[in-house]
Amino acid sequence: MAAPWFMFATGIENSYPTIKNGAVRVDELDKCGHYKHWRRDFELLQELDIRYLRYGPPIHRIWLGQGRYDWSFPDQTFGVLKTMDIVPIVDLCHFGVPDWIGNFQNPEIPTLFADYARAFAQRFPWVQLYTPVNEMFICATFSAAYGWWNEQLSSDTAFVTALKHIVKANILAMAAILEIRPDAIFIQSESSEYFHADEPDAIGHAEIMNARRFLSLDLNYGRRVDSEMYQFLLDNGMTRDEYQFFMTHRLRQHCIMGNDYYVTNEHRVAPDGRTWAAGEIFGYAEITRQYYERYRLPVMHTETNLAQGLNGDEAVTWLRKEWANVMRVRNSGVPIVGFTWYSLTDQVDWDTALREENGRVNALGLYDLDRNIRPVGKAYQLLIQRWRRVLPTQSVCLTVPIIPPSQFESAHAVSQQEAARNLSQAAPTSPTMADHAG
């Protein structure tokens, strides 16, 4: 009953940070027309033969207050996904929280968000795959280090505060979901970064940044951070008790490490610490190898895209390049279980990282906003057709124990959940020595 080991996926772009000191909510589900065209968007998945969808309900429209929810939209959308037997990877928090919570400086966020995650899992018990908090490192960086979104702060203390609240929220949400769905699988979609020293005097800055990029996953997986990062955390507001929480809450056995990679993920570093885009130097395969060697978890390529470009073929070329990188990762012995072109449709205003409301359409999707297929959509459709037949025959042992929605109440599904519950109760409550290695 386990699903074929490789998940070809796409996603519905659902970012919703606030800007202008919280006065404006940037809602990509609205800007990209999903509220109006959601039925058609799901039909597009069938046309592409995509069975896995990164999909997040709009938390700011659903979560009205503590213990108060409006489930009307997710009841409709998730009801149709279940009927279509599409497996959602549910994205519960994508760069923003409801207005009544404020922003990521709020220390109550972790426990409040765990309540929301539990309520969602109770409402939709057939959902098995989750990304509780999307791109935790990017969310903390853009909100509290760069000053772009939400709290719009720019300090190390604000960054550490946001980061510890975001990661703790992710951990508590995983624990809450596991109470309802003991065989839940968590796919951490996190940006994979690398910082290149532009000259010898920049090496020190680059080394610090290359240690800092791991902070969210180190804390999430209970891996001891590097000594310099430990001092950085404590100097900027994390207490020893808070750090110990992350080291003793061990849920990594339920996780797949999702690595997001774009052409903007590699950076050049100047001697004064300034950074700017480096373009693709190492590429997805090399950077993913670095993350895999640190965490030793199954991997999924959870986001990538590139604009169609003036020639009309730039996105297709990037798709082929990323797929070649996925195959290189796989052939090197890393257990990679999926690939995602993000997103299904074009996006709006991501050329300014959602900081400005210009209404500019970014041609990044498999379809445009009129729901016409783009060349990269046709290329991805063909790639799926060709490789879906081949990959399972090359790895008959590696599978992900996914229960399709249509089989949620089957005897096998019940047995799998019971086995997962028993394993969870028998699992050690503290990290092993391997979790602290490095």
TrEMBL record:
* Segments of skewed composition (Polar residues): 419-432
Which GO terms of the molecular function aspect are on file?
hydrolase activity, hydrolyzing O-glycosyl compounds
Q: Where is this region: Disordered?
A: 419-438
Listed Pfam families = Glyco_hydro_1
A Gene Ontology annotation in the biological process aspect, one of them, is: carbohydrate metabolic process
Question: Secretion signal: which residues?
Answer: none
**InterPro entries from the xrefs?**
GH (IPR017853), Glyco_hydro_1 (IPR001360), Glycosyl_Hydrolase_39 (IPR051923)
**Listed name of the protein:** Beta-glucosidase/6-phospho-beta-glucosidase/beta-galactosidase
